[in-house]
Amino acid sequence: MITENNRIRAIIKQYREHYKFTQNEIAKLSGLTQSAYSAIEIAKGNIDFDKTNYIAQAYGIKLWDFINPSTTIPEIKNLPNATRAIALLNKDKIISIAKTDINLPERIMTILNSNKLSEQFTSSDIWKMLPIEVRDFIKTTRVTDAISREAFRNVIAFTGQKRGKEKVYQKIK
To answer: What's the rounded Cα separation, in Å, for the pair 8 and 171?
Structure first.
């Protein structure tokens, strides 16, 4: 299950990746050190709302609007001047998703919690429900590796059956 801290971390990272900022760039824009910013994004401890507020201000957004899941990411033209300048420089930068953390376990958990999978499913079924930009860079074997880890042992179980070469799983109730 995604905790509130992890949900906010995902928003922080989503904004940064949307504008193709490096951690260092957004850290400087928010007045934080790169290590302080990185600690927020990679889940060391609880969310620090003062630091999160500084990050929100770098995007020209109030803290509540920043962490509100229904808020949309502002257009570049609506960013503060310093942030807009860097975003415009980064606009055409190509970033390989393979070099970024795609949060595959969280994405899989979201799919599992969506109740859109059939009662029994394979790694391919999960893979097909991932966003296209993720599917373009990973194979179903990466989904298989992720769901075989300990984090999913209390969530899904192997049924003992196979569909072709793939194991068939089901959610644990």
So the answer is: 26
CA distances from 82 to 15, 24, 41, 54, 106 (A): 16, 14, 22, 14, 32
Rounded to whole angstroms, the Cα distance separating 132 from 20 reads: 18
Give the pLDDT of residue 44.
66
Other CB atoms within 10 A of residue 39 CB? 15
> Which residues are within 8 A (CB) of 78 and not within 5 positions of it... i.e. 6 or more apart?
60
* 131 and 103 Cβ atoms separated by less than 8 Å: no
The bridge status of strand 156-163 relative to strand 120-121 is unpaired
pTM: 0.56
How far apart CA 81 and CA 43 sit, in angstroms, is 29
Q: What is the pLDDT of residues 55-83, one digit of tens each?
A: 999 999 999 999 998 889 999 999 999 99
The burial class, CB within 10 Å (0-12 / 13-18 / 19+), for 99 is: exposed
Positions of the chain with pLDDT under 70: 1-2, 44-45, 94-101
d(CA 159, CA 32): 48
pLDDT in tens, 8-24: 988 999 999 899 998 89
Nearest C-alpha neighbor of 157 from the set 165, 143, 167: 167
